[in-house]
Amino acid sequence: MVAAHITVNGEEAPISPAPTHTTVLDFLRERGLTGTKEGCAEGECGACSILVARPGVDKPTDWVAVNACLVPVAALDGQEIVTSEGLATAGGPGTPPALHPVQKEMAVRGGSQCGYCTPGFVCSMAAEYYRPDRCAPTAAEGGSDAEHGPNGFDLHALSGNLCRCTGYRPIRDAAFAVGAPTDEDPLARRREQAPPAPVATAYVQDDSAFLRGSTLAETLRLLRERPDAVVVAGSTDWGVEVNIRSRRAGCVVAVDRLPELRELRVESDSIEIGAALTLTEIERRLDGEVPLLSELFPQFASRLIRNGATLGGNLGTGSPIGDSPPALLALEASVVLADADGEREVPLSDYFTGYRRSVRRPGELIRSVRIPLPLSPVTAFHKIAKRRFDDISSVAVAFALDVRDGTVRKARIGLGGVAATPIRALATEAALEGRPWTAETVEAVAPVLRDEGTPMDDHRASAAYRSAMLGRSLLKLYTRTTEAVPS
Fold first, then answer.
1. In DSSP terms, which residues pair with 381 in a beta bridge?
2. Helix (H/G/I), strand (E/B), else coil: 136
C-alpha cells in the first residue's frame, strides 16, 4: 500500500507523521501554507476554504470548495487539493506569479479589508468561477438579481464565508465581475481529466487509526471487527466534535468514496440516493426532480457544508434538529441498512428511537435512502431560524400533500426541533385527509399542528414560540400553494 499522501498545489505531500485527528487546515499551516486560516473551527466562517478535485457532474472533475478545518487530513489520502497560494499562475524567471482572475477582481474592487477572510473567499469564489454550467442568465430565466450576477455567478456559493469587516458589497462586485476561464487556464483544463481514484487507506499513528476500505463489503467486515469505530463521510459533524470538544477516536472509518454508497438511481417506483453522495451532488444530479428536496437544499447550512455533508451522515447522527429528516419523513422515505450479514430496509418513520438513537445496530451502515414514487404534488419546506441561511433550525416543517378535486387525498408532514427525534405530524395528517383544501379546513386543523410534538425551551427558541410556528406553518402553506393546486 502506498504511503498516505496528498497532492497540494501540484506537489505530492506525505501525511505522516501527522496524528490521525489532524485537520487539513493544521496540516497545511504546518507546511507554511498560511493563507488557509482558522476562524471558527466549526465550518461557519469559511476562512479555511480550499479546493478539492472531485468527480464532476458536467465534466470529469469539479473543483469543489470545502472547509479544511473539518476534514481530517487522512480523509484526503490520494486526493488533490489547491489552496489560495496555488491559484496564481507561475511567472518566468524573475517574474512574480500572475494573480488568478478571482484574486485580481478582489484586489481591484476593494474586496479585501483586514484580509483575514480573503483567502477563504477567494477559494469559494474560484469554485464557482470553475463551475462548468455557470453562464449568464437569460431574460426568460429572469436575468440577474441580487443573488445571481450577470456572469451567472451564484452568490450562494459564498454563503459559508464570513467577512467580519462587513465588506460584502465589494466582494459581491468582484464575484459579479469575473469572466469565464480561458483555454490556457490550467485549473480549467484540469477539469477535463478524471480526479484521483479513491484509494484504500490504513493510516496509523501511535494508537489511533484512520481506515478506508476499497469496497462496501470490506468496510462492513472492518466495522464488525471494530464496532467502536467512528464512521465519517464529509466530517461536517465529527470535525466539530474533534475541534470544539477535543474528541479523539481510536479508530475512524471513512465511507465517503465507497462506490456502492455513491449511486443515484431513478426507477419507475422509487428514487434511491447513495448515503455518501454530498448534498451538492444530489441537488445537481436530481436537477429539480424532487421539488421538496430542491426547496430544502438551499436552506441546509451553506454551500461549503453541502459540498461535504451527506444524507447518510445527517440521518446517522440522529439529531432532532437535522434539516433533512423532516423532508424525508414527508416523502415517506426509507433507509437501506447494511452490515456484514446483509441488508434491510426500514421506514424512516420507524428509524429514530430516541434522542440521537436509532434502530441502526453496531456494525451497520446506512447504504442509501429510498424515496417512493409518485411524489405528492403539493410540497413545501419551512425552516424557522434566526438567520435566513447557514443556521440551525429552531423548527423545521416539511409538507407533502396530494390534493385532487379540491380534497386532501393524502397528507404527510415531517417535523424537526419539536421533539427528541424528528417526527411525523400524525394527528395533523389524519385531520387533513379527506377534507376539502379550504381556508376553513386550514383554520380548523392549524391548532392540531400547533400541538404536535413536545417542544422545549432552549437558547434557540421557547416552546411556546415553536408551537406558534407550527400553527402558522399550515396557514403559510395554504396561502402560498392554493393557486398551484391541480384541480
1. 398
2. coil
> Backbone phi, then psi, for 18, in 5-degree steps?
-60, 135
Q: How far apart are CA 162 and CA 39, in angstroms?
A: 9
Cβ neighbours around 164 below 10 Å, total:
12
- Which three cell numbers, joined as nine digits, stand for 440? 376553513
3-state DSSP call for residue 154? strand
Name the band, by pLDDT with cuts 50, 70 and 90, for residue 467: very high
pLDDT the model gives residue 139 = 64
Q: How far is CA 184 from CA 129, 165, 334, 358, in A?
A: 15, 35, 47, 52
With a CB cutoff of 8 Å and minimum separation 6, the contacts of 60 are 191, 192, 193, 194, 195
Contact, 355 vs 378, CB < 8 A?
no
Q: How far does CA 214 lie from the centroid of its chain?
A: 24
Residues sharing a CB contact under 8 Å with residue 92, sequence separation 6 or more, in sequence order: none
Residue 483 pLDDT > 70, yes or no? no
Beta strands in 405-453 (DSSP E): 407-416, 423-424
Query: CB–CB of 100/89 below 8 Å?
Result: yes
User: Are residues 255 and 229 in contact, defined by beta-carbon separation less than 8 angstroms?
Assistant: no
- pLDDT higher than threshold 60 for residue 486: no
Backbone angles phi, psi at 294, to 5 degrees: -60, -30
Of the candidates 134, 124, 143, the one whose C-alpha atom is nearest the C-alpha of residue 58 is: 134
Q: Nearest Cα to 424, choosing from 352, 319, 346?
A: 352
Neighbour count for residue 387 (Cβ, 10 Å)? 7
Among candidate residues 258, 235, 210, 257, the one with its CA nearest the CA of residue 305: 235
How many Å apart are CA 50 and CA 84, to the nearest integer?
7
